[in-house]
Structures are given as C-alpha cells and as structure tokens.
C-alpha cells in the first residue's frame, strides 16, 4: 500500500460541527490536528478565531462551514459569513449549495450564490457541499459544473447532517465531472480507514471526518493483514442501499431504488446481509 | 521487596514455587531468556507447564501445576494493568488452559515482587497461601473450607490484612466441579475451564496477597508518553468511552439479537423475543447501582446491581446470555441473582448456563428425564447450588455439557469445542469468529480471537461477516495478539482503542527489550504454537478443530438465517498460514523459526 499514515492525515479535514460543541472541544480538536498534522480543522464560524489563534504558525489551516447545514440562507448572509470567517482566520470555506435551487434547475441562482461566496472568501479556498443524498445523479453533475463555473476550488459530497454520507459512487461521479483541476472532498459517514481508502480510490483528495484520529491510528492495523481490505458486498457501499423515504424527497428516494432494478449486482441484493 | 521499597523492575521479579505436598516454598529469579521469548503471564505459564507436565497427567491429581502469573506491564501506569492469568491443565477440556481475570490481585502479586506463583502437589489439609510482600506462608484454611466466596474472602482479609486481596475458590472448587472458577474481589473470575477444581484438588482454598512495593520500568519517559497517548485513545473511542462505561458488556445483548446471533434455547435459535428485557439498557434502568473498576482501568465496564434487595456483582453480557436466552429465561432480576449464586459458589457462568441449556434440550428431546424446561426458572437456583456442591442432578451437570450430552446419548446437543462451552455469539453469524472457536487451543472461547470486533462491530474496520475469504489471516492475527496480550498482561477491551504498535510500545518501555509490533506478534505466535504442541502431546489434534454439527444447519429466522459455518473452506487456509501440516501439526520449519524445535 503506497499511502502512508502521514499522507492520509494530510488529506483529512479534522471536523467538529455538532451543536453541543464547547470551546474545550475546539482546543482538543486543534491539538489533535497539530499532533497528527491534519490538513485543516473544520468548524463552525463561531470558533474560527479561537482555532486560528491555536493554529497560527502551523501548517494546519482553519476551515469554516458557511450556510451550514441546510444551504438555505440568502446569498448575502452566506457571503458575509464567509467574509467574516476569512477575516477571523479561516483559510478554507465549506459552503452548502442552495440545494432547493439546484433541485429546481435554477442554475443562475446556484451559480451566483457560489460566486458570491468565492468572491467574499478572497484567497481562501471554497468547497461547495452538494448534499448528494438530496440529489439524483444529474443534479450532482450539474452541481459540480456550476461550482466549477463559479470559481470554487472543491466540490464536497455531504454535510454529515443530511440523509446520506459520502460513498464511492458519488465521489467517482464528481471526480469524473470536475476533472483533475478541482478537488473532491468526501464527507459524511467516513469512520474507518477502510471507508477513507475506498473514497480515495474513487477519486477523493480530501476527507471530512470527525473520526480522523481513529482513522489514522487504526490505519496502523493495515500493516498486519491485507484481509481488512477484502471487498465488501456491492450493496453495502451503494447509495441506493442507504436511501431512506423518511429522510429523502420521494422522487430522489425512488430514483435511488429504481437503480437497484437494473443494477448488475442485483443478485447480491437478496435476503439479509 | 517491601523492605527496601526500591522499585523493582520486571526482570528482577521472583517466581515462587510452592509445594503443597511438603510445604516448601522456593524462590527463583525470573529467567531473562524466558522474558524475551514469552514475556510473562500466559506465555511463562504455558512454557512452565509444557516443560514440567508429562502427557497424560490427570488434571485433578497432585501432579498438575496451577500457575498464577502476571506480566511486564502489570501494576504499571498502563491502563488496565491489573490483570493476571492462571495456567493449568484443564479438567474440563484436557487441554492446556489459561484463565484471565481483572480485579486487583494481579497488581498486588506484582507489587509484592512476584512474576509468577507455581503451585504443585497437594496439601493434606485445606490451606491458603499468604503473601505479605517478602513474607510467604502456607496457612491452615480449615475455618473457611466449605464457606462461599464472599464469606471466605471476608474472613481471609480479616485474618490477614485489610489491604490484602483474595483469590479463592468456593464450594464448587472444593468439590472438584469441572466448571469451578477462582474468584477475586468476590465477583471477578478466573472463570473458565475448571481452574477452580484444580485449586480444590490441591486443597488450596485461596491465594491472599498484600503487595506494597513499587514497580520500576526500564524507560519511564517512553512509558509516560505511551500512557498519555493510550489514555487519550481510550477517551476518543466510542466503545471504551461510551458504550462500555455506560452499559457495560451487556450493551451487546440487543446488538447480538439484531444480528440474529444471540443463541437462544441452546443455539436452536439466534434471536430471543425478550432480548430487550435482558439488555444492557434494561439493566441500567432497573438494576444498576454503580460501576466497578478493575485496577488501573479508565473504562469501568463492571456493574454492581441490586436484585431482590441485595447488591450483587455483574451480570456481564456472557452471563446474561448463558443464564437468560440460552435457557429461554427473560427475568433479568433472576439472572442477576443466579449470577450471584454462581459467584458465591465459584462457578463459570458461561458453562453453567450453557450446560443447563443443554440439559433443557436433552429433556425437550426426550433424551433425559428431569424437571427442566426452557423459560422456567423454578428450581434452577437450587440446581445451581447442587452443581456447586456436586449433589444429585447438579453433580451430573457439573461435569459440563460434553459429558452430560454424551451420557444421554446425544453428544451433538452439547454446544462446545474441545469440551469448553461456546459463548454468546452464534458462529453461523460470523465466519471468522466461528473459525476462532474451532481452532482455539482452550476450546470454545470468544476471547482467543474476537472477530466480533471487525465482523459485527466494525472495529477497526468492517469485514463481511459471511465471507470465509481472508478470515484465517485475521483469526491468526487476533490469536497471536491475544496470546501476547495475555503474556504482558492487559485487558482485551483495550483492543478497541489500541493497535499492536501501542502494545509493543508499552512492553518495550517496561522491559527495555526493543520490541515492535511484528516481534510482539511473533511472541504471541510462539505461545500459540507451544499450546498447540501441548495439546498434540495430550492427543488433542486437528480432528478437534471443529464445531458442533448444529452449525451445519441454517437458522430458520432472524438476522443470521440461511447461514451455516463454512469451516471446511477456512480451516485448510488457517493451517497453511499457521505453517502447520494438513492435520494441523506445526511443521518442523515453523517450530524452528519460532525457536520451539
């Protein structure tokens, strides 16, 4: 395996976005990020100044979410939040796309919303969270195209608060769409080094996770057996398996489930696994 | 050690040889080469047993050895460093056997200056060994012989020192019941394999230890760093920081049931309709009084419960299963009380519950005549008491499920491997775990290779529980690591948070021997192979690497339905990767490589 723990750590946005986060957790997050040399700490804007101070003079950047987690704030608010975050020390901005507009096919609104944040962020890199679990593939592709047109630097799969996390299918689709010039960040539900390696293999070059420490620590198990990476059943890593009528719009849910009917691995989708 | 109070490094620890036949006590320095090759604990115990026990010895004869041992990490600041092991030849399985306990006594053995205590022979009268740092004395134990574990513990502490810790047998060990445990802190058990019966066969009631010395490590700075890191990892891990502290091991009840792997009615089913009623969540809501921590443990998985107005230890997951779903019983209060009875008697709850479940099925199928019925607790506490005193039907069940089922002409109804009752995970639901059961040197055991971690819990990563491919490799990794862990000696639950490299760091810092993860696993492999050779010498060969035929039939319902154990697909690969021949015998080349030829 070519990937080292150090290289893997450099791909991780060490994330803490929960509502119950106290300042002490941000201190801990930053200490861990320095210790493991993660790419960034990914936090809410209220903690940007605190983290920036703790991480100054280090290679670990502050990444701030904007319009999070719904993406439904008005553009000016997103832009202002991004601008303020950058002023307070953020060097990367993870904004949530206007999901409703994207689903509605309102390309201009989606693009302008992203453009406003890109401009407001100045030199900071902007990642656009598509929340893929609320989209069908065509909409994911369109979200990638619009993000690229708007000058964003990355596209990102999920907030971690939506109906689905990252999966190889979405990452591969996004990588194929944006090409080599943009980054693809996989986020949501990445808990183990196997999850991480899977999305990296699919094309991700950044990983958002709150389990960064466990991923790097457990990655040391890899040297003791190749069997960890035995292939999983196709359904386990397929977004169609994760689809939920409770959490997704009916049309999106049905779109995912209809894929199962024509899936080449449909014979695997039997009984209980 | 107490006189000088100079911190003692592990390589200066003493091995005590106690002859109970002639009442002599001999002190020997710990062999340095032994540390390098076997570390301590299970490693040194197995090596001592292999070198000194000729084949064919009756486990309950004076010729058997009973070895208490600790390791190089014991009583240091490493989390969970209070554990200890007992190694002997098991009267239940006939195999080499190690049984592992938490509590505090391991740390006190080490603080008193000892690496191991080897008991040999048999005393004419009941005795106990009193270790007060350097002072070691064989004392008369007549006044506690016949007493239960709680009373014995209290009286022995009263007779010795309030700061002493006790490992003792109850009536079950005294009566040579093959399911007898050795108990410490009243409710922690060197649980399995009938090690308590071996102790009873020697007329040895207890080991009582007060240790006030300090232990030294070779590189304090290295250990401090490793321990700080280790504590952080335990805090970061959801199993060691949340599930186990909040629910204890019973958190597994609902999970195992969801997977259809909660053996019910003697493994006739894999789901229990009333699992919720005996779950960790229900235990927390109804019975839990407080948690219990072993020496140096930041996890605190132990429970103290209140049942029928009485505070009792436990119950653990395996116990809840054995005395609950295995017997079709859904009464959590009763299960906690039955567990308490087993603790007082000094009996292995897994084997007790599994053997009762076996008897219930024998009755169900008309193979045995007794007032036993799945789901019915009437008379069961009395039966458990009879088992502990080897009386009546209890005496029959106290021989374990293999003997019981054979006697009644239905050997296939005993859910055991090599005579040891299989614990609380239906092997049909996890192929790797099944292979671990089949190949375990001490018989049906979940702790030799806990593949429930990757196959069910997804720790460190999830692997497909139904695939046989790759499982031999993982089972060997876990078996070797477990053997090493029992040699240095730490708690299995640290596995959730630590990797092999962390353990190597501890051992290296404590011993001064440069050890990395691979060399640590090689030590584990050496121990595993030596155990295998012991068993082969006893006539226990590859034909015993099997599971009961029940697991060739799929379950009709639940999350593990439609599955059988694919042992024939995994075992040849396991032997090949182990460097063993097709019959499961270590090859000369492998033994030479391990320094065992």
Textual characterization of the structure:
The complex is a heterodimer of chains A (273) and B (597). Chain A has two domains: 5-230, TIM Barrel, CATH 3.20.20; 231-273, no CATH class. Chain A has 273 residues and is of the alpha/beta class. An eight-stranded parallel β-barrel of chain A has the order 1-2-3-4-5-6-7-8, surrounded by seven helices. The mean pLDDT of chain A is 96. In chain A, α9 (193-202) links the parallel β7 (183-187) and β8 (206-209). Chain A has helices spanning 5-9, 23-36, 48-55, 75-87, 99-104, 107-121, 137-149, 168-178, 193-202, 212-219, 239-242, 250-261, and strands spanning 12-16, 40-43, 61-66, 92-96, 125-129, 154-156, 183-187, 206-209. Chain A is 44% helix and 14% strand. With 597 residues, chain B is α+β, with helices and mostly antiparallel strands. Chain B has three domains: 8-216, Aldehyde ferredoxin oxidoreductase, N-terminal domain (Aldehyde Ferredoxin Oxidoreductase,  A, domain 1, 4-Layer Sandwich); 254-403, Aldehyde Ferredoxin Oxidoreductase Protein, subunit A, domain 2; 430-496 and 516-593, Aldehyde Ferredoxin Oxidoreductase Protein, subunit A, domain 3 (Orthogonal Bundle), CATH 1.10.599. Chain B contains 23 helices and 19 strands. In chain B, the strands form five sheets. Chain B has a six-stranded mixed beta sheet with strand order 3-2-7-4-5-6. A six-stranded mixed beta sheet of chain B has the order 9-8-13-10-11-12. A three-stranded antiparallel beta sheet of chain B has the order 15-16-17. In chain B, a hairpin with a 3-residue loop joins β11 (182-184) and β12. Chain A binds chain B through residues 191-195, 213-214, 217-218, 220-221, 223-228, 230, 232-233, 236, 271-273, and chain B through 233, 236-237, 260, 454, 458, 460-464, 466-467, 469-471, 473-474, 477, 499-501, 517-518, 521, 559, 561-562.
